[in-house]
Amino acid sequence: MKKLVKTTLAVVFLAAIIIPYIIAAFYGNPSADDFTNAVGVLRTEGGNFFVKALRRSSAIYYEWQGTYTGNYLVSFGTAIFHNLGLKGLRLEFVAGIAFFFFSISAFLVCVLKANAKEIELWQILFGCTVVAFAILYRFNVNEILYWHTGLAVYTVPFCFGIIAVGLAFSLDKGWVKTALTAICAFLAVGGSLDISAFVCVTLLLGLIYLVYCKKSFGRVAILFAVAVIGSFINVLAPGNFARHDSLSESFPVFQSLRYAIVGVGLRNWGIVFGVLTPFLVLTVIVLWNNVESDRLEFINPILLAVALFCAEIVIDFPVYLGYSSNTFPNRCEFVSRVVAVLYLIVLFVDYIGWYKKKNQTVIQFNKQYVVLVALVVIMAITPFASEYAFENYFPFRIYNDMATGELDRYRRGNDVILSALENAHGEDVVVDIYEYSLDVDYIQSMRLRSDPEYWVNAGTAMYYENVNSISVNYK
How confident is residue 1, by pLDDT bands cut at 50, 70 and 90? Predict the structure, then answer.
């Protein structure tokens, strides 16, 4: 009965965070690159849609970027909107959200299974809730969850990477699982370069750990080799260099390294010493009684913290180098923020095991103490304890926008635009939008402007062959 109550509460808290994002998915729309990529696929000659997508992704590889997994998903995924319309696209958004939380759950199961004597469902759900809140409560996910191109190049490969890293360090062996993990790793490093760096550097740290502890490392070495090979395919793509040359003629290595160090430091400071602090304390307490000190060789947590900090720098570095500036897009910040939280959980587990083994003591936290800390956590997320008002939390904003009709206004405005495009007859389409919500910024907008020459407008007009040009005026 007690387990049922814990599981029920964990489900309620997790659902309270996830459900608004699923609701928002049904207000989504195609945006920017979604149209231009679709044009590229549809104008590719020969073969069925699979073949066209493959040829188009190859062209992107040579002309724009080396993200081979993302390139194909971007290209093939255009069939979803082209053939199924908005319903298909919105279901894709829902699937992306589900895949993200599944990957987080898989990672937590693998980490806890390798270190804990017993795993209960409520603990996994609680872990997902902490990760979800830590990432989503103040983070705008418009480029990650509600944009087909963002899903293809970032979210889906990143989820494969999270699963691959989790499976790589699980205690379960076997060539079938190794092959599955290798496939996930190869697909992951075919995403953006920061995701590629995440998979490679995390597997490298694991490999170093296994060698240091004189444990069998052949399986992880194979996975690391697969990830490195895939990363080279990605990094050495002619398109990467062509795209970089259009932005800058130099590779400011030391400047990019400095940006990465500062960025990682500020990010972790904000996570550890902020609204999330009570959540992190509660996470340690929940894990404490379950982590066993004799299952693995735990290392000094300070040394691990330094290693993980350096790993985060490696992950952020290619982003700064690619843009040759301190530009760090929202979608890249999402990847880095998730990594920081997952690394923190690994660090907590290591600290607990290391402390127990070093001191040969067992501290048991009673239920009253856990309840007390849980109440502190609840207080910490209220506007009375934080300068960041509760109504600005994105889950709450989505609920509020749905209740006040803001989401409906946002969708109706986009429906007017799409209807005008679909019903045009070879004309210059001018759409005046009188009812629209600019407050719904957590969904990627269509990004159409009044200027018909703007690249998004031009690409959208090319997608709709019955349209000469499109101009949208927001009144």
Answer: low
3-state secondary structure of 155: helix
Count structural domains, the chain.
2
362 and 395 fall within a common domain: yes
Alpha-carbon dihedral of residues 47, 48, 54, 59, nearest 10 degrees?
60
Same domain, 370 and 416: no
User: Per-residue DSSP letters for 256-305?
Assistant: HHHHHHHHHHHHHHHHHSSTTHHHHHHHHHHHHTTB-TTSS----HHHHH
Instruction: Give yes or no: residues 435 and 335 share one domain.
Output: no
Distance of alpha carbon 344 from alpha carbon 8, whole angstroms = 26
Instruction: Locate 352 and state its tokens.
Output: 């607990």
Same-domain pairing of 9 and 127: yes
CA gap 335, 346 in Å, rounded = 17
Domain boundary, last residue among 350, 382, 400: 400
Number of H helices, E strands in the chain: 19, 2
pLDDT of residue 157 exceeding 50:
yes
Same domain, 358 and 294: yes
Phi, psi of 296 (to 5 degrees): -135, 170
| pTM score, whole prediction | 0.91
283 with 386, same domain: the answer is yes
Sequence letter at residue 150: G
Q: Which tens digits make up the pLDDT trace of 410-439?
A: 999 999 999 999 998 888 999 999 888 888
Structural domain span for residue 387: 2-400
Q: For residue 413, what are the contacts with CB-CB under 8 A and spacing of at least 6?
A: 433, 435, 436, 437, 474
Give, rounded to a whole angstrom, the gap between the first and last alpha carbons of the chain: 57
Here the tokens at position 433 are 């939008």
HSE on the CB side for 454, CA within 13 Å? 14
DSSP assignment string, 370-385: HHHHHHHHHHHTSTTT
| Residue 246 sits in the same domain as residue 310 | yes
User: Token pair of 88, please?
Assistant: 């298909």
SS3 427: strand
